[in-house]
Amino acid sequence: MRLSTVILPIHPWSEGQKIWRRAEDLGFHAAYTYDHLSWRSFRDGPWFGALPTLTAAATATERLRLGTLVTSPNFRHPVTLAKELISLDDISGGRITLGIGAGGNGFDATALGQEAWTPKERADRFGEFVALLDRLLTEGAVTERGTFYSADEARNIPGCVQSPRLPFAVAATGPRGLRLAARYGQAWVTTGDPKLYEEGTPEQSVAALRGQVEKLATACADSGRDVAELDKILLTGFTPDRSRPLESVDAFVDFAGRHRELGFTELVIHWPIADSDFAADQAVFEKIATEASAQLS
Question: HEC string of the chain?
Answer without folding.
Answer: CEEEEECCCCCCHHHHHHHHHHHHHCCCCEEEECCCCCCHHHCCCCCCCHHHHHHHHHHHCCCCEEEEEEECCCCCCHHHHHHHHHHHHHHHCCCEEEEECCCCCCHHHCCCCCCCCCHHHHHHHHHHHHHHHHHHHHCCEEEEECCCCEEEEEECCCCCCCCCCCCEEEECCCHHHHHHHHHHCCEEEECCCHHHCCCCCHHHHHHHHHHHHHHHHHHHHHCCCCHHHCEEEEECCCCCCCCHHHCCHHHHHHHHHHHHCCCCCEEEEECCCCCCCCCCCHHHHHHHHHHHHHHHC
